[in-house]
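Much of our argument rests on the idea that a fold can be written as discrete symbols. The record that follows shows the chain in one-letter code together with its fold in token form.
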Amino acid sequence: MTALAERLSNQFVPFHVLFVFVMIFAFFSSFDPTAYASSATSKVGAEVEALLTWKASLDSQSQSLLSPWNESGHCNWVGIGCNKAGRVTHIDLESYGLRGTLSNLSFPSFHHLLSLKLYNNSIYGTIPSQIGSLLRLTNLSLSNNHLSGTIPSEIGMLSSLIYLSLWSNRLIGLIPPSIGNLGNLTELYLFDNQLSGPIPHEVGMLRSLFVLSLSWNKLTGSIPQEIGLLRSLTDLQLSTNNLTGSIPSSIGNLGNLTILYLHENQLSGSIPQEVGSLRSLSNLCLEYNNLTGSIPSSIGNLGNLTMLYLYENQLSGSIPQEVGSLRSLSNLCLEYNNLTGSIPSSIGNLGNLTILYLYENQLSGSIPQKVGLLRSLIELDLSKNNLTGSIPSSIGNLGNLTILHLCENQLSGSIPQEVGSLRSLSKLCLGSNNLMGSIPSSIGNLGNLTILHLFKNQLSESIPTSIGHLGNLTVLYLYYNKLTGRIPSTIGKLKNLKFLAFAENHISGSIPPELGKLKSLIYLNLLGNKLTGSIPSELENLTDLQFFDIADNNLTGHLPQNICLGGSLRHLYASNNSLIGSIPKSLRNCKPLIRVTLERNQLTGNISEDFGVLPNLVYIDLSYNNFYGELSQNWGRCHNLTSLKISKNKISGKILPELGEATQLQVLDLSSNHLAREIPNNFRKLDLLFDLKLSDNRLSGNIPAELGKLSNLEHLNLATNKLSGSIPRQLGECVKLRNLNLSKNLLSGGIQTEIGKLQFLQTLDLGNNSLTGEIPEQIGELQSLEILNLSHNSLFGSIPSSFNGMRSFTSIDISYNHLKGPLPNTKAFQDASFEAYKGNDGLCGNKTGLLPCSPKMSNGVMGKRNNKVVLLVIFSVLGILCLVVVGIFLVHCKRVGNIENVPEGATNENLFAIWSYDGKMVYENIIEVTEDFNARHCIGVGGYGTVYKAKLPSNQVVAVKKLHSSEDGELADLKSFTSEIRALTEIRHRNVIKLYGFCSHPRHLFLVYEFLEGGSLERILSNDEEILHFEWTKRVNVVSDLADALSYMHHDCSPPVIHRDISSKNVLLDSEYVAHISDFGTARLLKHHSSNWTSFAGTFGYAAPELAYTMEVNERLDVYSFGVLTLEVLMGKHPGDLITSVSSSPPTAHDILLKDILDSRLPPSRTHVEKEVVLVAKLALACLHTNPQCRPTMRQVSVILSKQSPPLQNSFHLISLGQLIDVNCSTS
């Protein structure tokens, strides 16, 4: 140092250099190496102590995994990395199986920590706020643990952070806005937690971000516009949250984006056109949202797109042609939307497409031929659309196709032979279309096929034997077609088959025994064919069978004895055959049985031994067989049984009290047997019972009063027994009762007044007993009562005056009693035949077989009436004065309306009246809910008005018919309107549409009817899909309903109501296919036997021929129209020229077979309805007689249809129309 000083003294040294030198010299002079080493060692020691403290807080297994941490040299510990100074920079313990919390890890001790990776452990508890002290941290990975609580806001202090991963924990609360401070962050993973609240706008500050993944949380609010500032973003995943609002247009700024996942949210609005700017995008998933509008054409710009998922939204419009530009696309899924229009032909450009899902839309048009160019296609599903035309033969080019679903469209033509080229196909569904022709034999080439659905088409001819080559087939559904021929024995080769359904075809021949080789079969349905012969015993080998249906065939022989040998059978249906023998023994203890229908066979055997306790049985019908023996106690132990029907057998003994233990019973029918003794008292336990039929037995004793406890009972039939005693007054507690039949017993005493409580009662039959006393006044207050039979009793006194107000009556029989006094002045009594009131010596009236009522005899009645005469005159005068005042007021209102020509006074200047069981319907409500009769609410247009559907604020749905204005102005409409009101207010019938109210107003003239959800008969007959549910029994019932309604209108209304426009458009059906006549806009009221000359009203094709030369209106016009409509119901279409053929003289349709004119869309009628179809056809032809006087009356038609149809004289298939036409005519 001295030498240095000497050397410097010989030189000039600048002051500032000298100063620095002195300061450095002073620093080193004072430096203590020992002290520095001590400080560094102290900080390293703090890190080591922090690690060991945290280790000690972990569970014992975790501590053993970190046992090397007890050794010296912490930088060599497992999962620990250090810098050159020995400071901890990395803690990497991913997938070590550690269990514990982070609360004992002292984060402030690690000043140099760059990376903290604890991924895939069992760390639980919260993230400590002290984590914000790791200022140098660049990588934080705590994902796939069990962390809970919120993300601390202090995480925003980690400004050096590049990678943040907290996914798959149990974190809750908000994403802290402080996360916007992490300006260096490139990847952020918070998915699969329970985070809530909105996405913070501060996320737009993360300009370096490549990946943002927030999926699988509970985030709400909208996607912030600031997301468009993240121009470096390549992966954006916000799916499976509760995000709302629209997709921000700013998303179009993300030019580097390759993945965009927004699916499974509640996003709404349209897909922004700006999406088309994302030219780097490969995956676009927007499914499971509420997106509306059309698919933007700009989507065609996404040339790199491989996956496009837009399904489960509310998208509309057509599929843009620009989709054909997405040549990289492999998956295109647009299903479950409201897309319309045709499938664009440009879709054939997508040569890389492997999955194409367009099902559950409203697409129309044909399947483009160019679909055959998609040779990479593996799955194609176009089902549940409105596609028409044929299946293109080019589809055979899709050699890689494994799934082809075209079901539930309107495809026609035949199945192309080229389908047989799809050798990779595993699932083929063509069901519910209009395909015809035969099943191509080439289908046998599809060796990989597991599911084949061809049901609900019009396929014909026989099932190809090549179907036996489909060795991998598990499901074969061919039901509801027109297949003929036999079941091919080659089906026995389908060893993997589990589901086989050939129901409702025309298959004939016997059941092949080879079906017994299908050991995997669990479902076999052969319902509704023409199968004959016996059931092969080989079917007993089907030990896994759960569903077996052979009903509605012509099978003979025995049921297989071991049909339930495997103990798997749940459903057995064999009704409507000619089976003989006993119940299979294996059914006795077949525990899984749920439903059994064996009715209408010739089965026999002792019923008491055939069934054990079946705990799962819900429904069983053994009616119309030859079973004998007594009822078993086991039925009462079937605790899930809801329906037990054993009528029309030879069962004897008594009804066991144990039956009352089957507390789930809703239907019990033991009628037409040989049961004796008393009805058990403990039936009161069956509180769910709504249908009890014990008629036509030998039951004796009293009717149990306990039946009154059955509060849900709607139908009670105890007729034709030997019951005695009085009618229990407790029956009045069965307030839901609709039909009560106690006829043909030995009942005595009076008719209980409590029956008057049964306000829903429609049928009351107490005939053929020994009842005495007077008819209670309360019976006349049953406003729903339609049929009343009190005949063959010993009732006396006069008919109560309350019967004068009974307008619901359609049939009454009071014959053979001791009644006296005048008949009530109602249609039911006045139009009743002599048979209905004969045998009562004291009755009087202006009726055949009765003496006129003398003043003395009717004095009581007349005395009361005399007191009313004065009042009647007074009220008549007052009524006329009121009418004059109202008339003046209405004229004034009309003038004001004409002068002002504005609607402001509409509410105060209308004449509104309403009759409704639920209160007054307000004019303003109807105008509001129909949007002033907007066309979108229109459901039909008739000659006199337009019908709208209106849902009132009370949620009641009604039909509103707004009458058209005419050339004559409002008065002409009022005339028609008044006619209709007068007719409808007099009508109360179950088969006539109900009127709720009407409104006459300067702006509107409308009627309010009940709304029937089934729609018009015209609509159903023209719907090829719905027509399949409108089978023969329902059609016969509809014809009967219409006959009853017209009979009531013609013969029970005074004056008679002539409809004049009977047609399929004016017949409405409810959900149960019960028919109701509607549209009385052209109805005219006539005095009986009078004429009315007026202009033509009706529908061409239904009008009677005599209207060509006379305009006389009478009931015979409706009879003719009824005949046309009945043929339309049978044929499924308007009869057209057939009417001329059957009406010509001689008839040119004489040799046409009845079966050839029936609706070919339905399977042929079954044996048990064939005679009903013949009877209906015969009546229809009778109604079409050219001589009006030769047509039957509607009452005659109604009566004939209500009786049992006569047996057929010839085979149904040989009956011609000539055999049904009655050439004789009696005009008397």
